[in-house]
Design brief:
The structure is a single chain. The chain is α+β, with helices and mostly antiparallel strands and 248 residues long. It has two domains: 67 residues, Winged helix-like DNA-binding domain superfamily/Winged helix DNA-binding domain (Arc Repressor Mutant, subunit A, Orthogonal Bundle); 166 residues, Beta-Lactamase (2-Layer Sandwich). The protein contains nine helices and ten strands. A hairpin with a 2-residue loop joins strand 3 and strand 4. The two termini are 37 Å apart.
């Protein structure tokens, strides 16, 4: 049992390293990996060496970066993930009917990951690649946060204040109130929360047996569409979310 626990802890630590390195855009030194993951430097070096050997990390004089094995896993995910497979044609139809960029996000830990996206004829001025991680506490991420299972509850009453893109401060009380509203109305309208000058509408995707599969989002710049105007597209969004969910 002790050996099994040790192996499990080793895997967890290795994944912590890969997770951290995947969040930075430039090579990162071993000491920084150690500091950010809370691992002893010697443990970090041992695990990083194994990860380099297996292709999950690369190392150079500048530091560590993610390795090519991670890319092959990403490719396998796009082929195997049923949510992505069934979502793509639905997103195409949703974008055609609304003229807006549509996306699907899933929760992983305390973040959300973009797994499927169809750009509008007039793409957003900022681009998010598939695999982009975003926070749960701003924008459409709140939908995934609102419906989390009890055992995964984030302590919103103890959460730090969050500065939104337009300069507003979101207190833990504000967040808790918004999560309650999402659970009541079944969708969320976000204005200039994560990126200044954007409006988005997000709905949960439920499987036929009541499992939260992800969140479906449409987004536009506020100089082309107001919050009231994007709300008029809510029936399209909700119908698309049901369509995806029914196929899960």
């Amino acid at each position: 049992m002790a050996e099994s626990n040790n192996r499990g802890r080793t895997v967890e630590r290795a994944l912590d390293i890969v997770d951290y390195v995947s969040t930075v855009r430039t090579p990162v030194k071993l000491s920084q990996i150690s500091r950010q993951t809370g691992l002893h430097l010697a443990t970090t070096q041992r695990l990083a060496t194994t990860l380099v050997h297996r292709g999950y990390l690369r190392v150079s004089d500048a530091g560590y970066t993610v390795g090519p094995s991670v890319l092959s896993l990403a490719r396998a995910f796009t082929l195997q993930d049923r949510l992505s497979v069934v979502s793509f044609p639905v997103l195409q139809n949703l974008t055609d009917s609304t003229g807006l960029t549509s996306s699907v996000y899933v929760r992983t830990g305390e973040t959300r990951v973009l797994t499927c996206r169809v750009d509008a004829p007039r793409p957003m001025r900022y681009q998010l690649p598939i695999g982009q991680r975003l926070e749960l506490t701003r924008g459409g991420g709140k939908v995934l946060l609102a419906y989390q299972s009890a055992e995964d509850d984030l302590p919103t009453e103890d959460a730090a204040e969050t500065k939104l893109a337009d300069g507003r401060i979101q207190t833990p009380e504000d967040l808790a109130a918004k999560l309650a509203t999402i659970r009541s109305q079944g969708y969320y309208l976000s204005i200039s929360e994560r990126h200044h000058g954007t409006v988005s509408l997000t709905a949960p995707i439920w499987s036929p047996d009541g499992v939260l599969c992800g969140a479906l989002n449409i987004v536009a710049h506020d100089d082309t569409l107001t919050g009231e105007q994007i709300m008029e597209m809510r029936p399209h969004l909700m119908s698309a979310a049901r369509n995806i969910g029914e196929q899960m």
